[in-house]
Amino acid sequence: MIALGVTPASVSATPGDVAATHAYITAGYALARVSVARLGQVQAKIESYNRRLEQECPRVGAGSPEDEASQPASNEAANALWSIGYGTDMTQIRAFLQTTRRLHWSNPAIGRAAVRFASDLNELATSPLPDLCADLAAWKQTGFQTFPAASAALVSRIQAIEPTAVPAALLAPYERGSDAAMLARMTHLEGEIGEFEFVHGQNDWDQLLETLGLNQ
């Protein structure tokens, strides 16, 4: 939970707060709609990527250790899936970021939270697709002792990103008209995305690790 220094009951809404809240919810809803519409496209891209690796470097990581030393490799595989998934929505995510950067609330912490959320999404969307074949081959050449330093650093940075939307309770005092209903629809769509990731995400990761000969 992001502590923004206010409680909903104590907030007095200004016209600017109301306008910023409406714009934030509208942009977030547009992003959620696009994301749900493209879930099938994302899955197709992931399956195509896995088939490509099956051709280029099948089981390149076979023989790697089953301990913490393998975490950069398995996490890089997860990062590849995120790069594909978030990257598919890059245009809409960038539009969402541009919108949040223009918004202002009387409590500037809400604006900072909105921009931080959009910036985190944008960083995931623009993260480069890792060269798993090259990185795992280089790791293998060291007897699975040393993962490429630059790639390991990128893995750690991407893994640390946890996008967090502005809490709905903090937006509620500024909602007017259809805002609450739109936010509810957005939350429902985000639930669909979460369910899709739960159903397919682990399986996609498992398949990718199997293709590369890696352990979790």
Provide a descriptive summary of the structure in words.
The chain has 216 residues and is mostly helical. Helices cover 69% and strands 0% of the residues. The chain has one domain. The chain is elongated and about 60 Å long.
List keywords for this structure.
single chain, 216 residues, mainly alpha, 9 helices, disordered N terminus
Element order, helices and strands? HHHHHHHHH
The overall number of domains is 1
Largest sheet: none
Query: In terms of structural class, how would the helical and strand content be classed?
Result: mainly alpha
Strand content: under 5%
What is the helix fraction of residues, given as a range?
Answer: 55-70%
Quaternary state, please? single chain
Mean model confidence by pLDDT:
93
Rg calc: 20 Å
List unreliable stretches of 5+ residues.
1-9
What is the end-to-end distance?
A: 29 Å
Net shape: elongated
Q: What's the number of helices?
A: 9
| Number of E strands | 0
Secondary structure elements and their pairing?
Blueprint: H1 15-37, H2 39-56, H3 71-88, H4 90-101, H5 108-126, H6 132-141, H7 149-159, H8 168-171, H9 179-212
Helix pairs in contact: 1-4, 1-9, 2-3, 2-9, 3-5, 3-7, 3-9, 4-5
In short:
The protein has 216 residues and is mainly α. The protein has 9 helices and no strands.
